[in-house]
Model the fold of this input.
Amino acid sequence: MTVNVDPVVIMKQEVGKAAASRVKSDSIVGLGTGSTTAYAIEYLGERLRKGELKNIVGIPTSFQAEVLAKKYRIPLTSLDTVDRIDIAIDGADEVDPNKNLIKGGGAAHTREKVVDSLADLFIVVVDSGKLVDKLGSTFLLPVEVIPMAVAPVMRSLEKLGGKPELRMGVKKAGPVVTDQGNLVIDVKFDRIDDPACLEKTINNIPGVLENGLFIGVADIILVGEIKEDRPLVREII
Ligand SMILES: O=C[C@H](O)[C@H](O)[C@H](O)COP(=O)(O)O
Done:
């Protein structure tokens, strides 16, 4: 693993490694997106290389996950060729006490929701800074929208009490374009009291493909923490 002294990076590395340790040989593995899952993918590759793990195949949730899997020589397949996913490992932007999530900080939540929801076991990997009492308190809610529907979807989101903004690229002029060729609207809600209802309401707006609320999908949350200068991984079941 890459050596780093930034405490957040250490927490991400530890939790990624802990999740990858739970993968068994002969498994179909959902490969999540983001900086935390990247460590899990790296460690899965290391376990394969050492022969600790045999015959796994990955289903990537994004172009990023696909590139990393290829780098670490993890064989890949698609949902066209498998009838199950044994385990999925993925990050999150917020986790509430009911294991509900906001995801999509990397604009990958649509494919992530497909893969993570299909997994027999979905393990979420986060550092302790992602734990919140209420969803929406620290992170805007990502909504993937087809390009021609951006303006009406924004108006509908305002009617729901949200403050929407089109996500813009960094080191790229213009908006962020998802792996599916769509755009992302990030929405600030003052409070999300009923995330399950909001998830469905937003997905019912014509032109919306998927939003970043993951309700009742996560099985286990692995939280990277630093206690008394030592990294540890706490499990929430
Ligand atoms: O779209 C991206 C994903 O939902 C990520 O899993 C999420 O944003 C967490 O990413 P990170 O581990 O980099 O904080």
Notes: The first strand starts at residue 28 and ends at 31. Residues 32-37, 90-93, 103-109, 112 surround ribose-5-phosphate (CB under 6 Å).
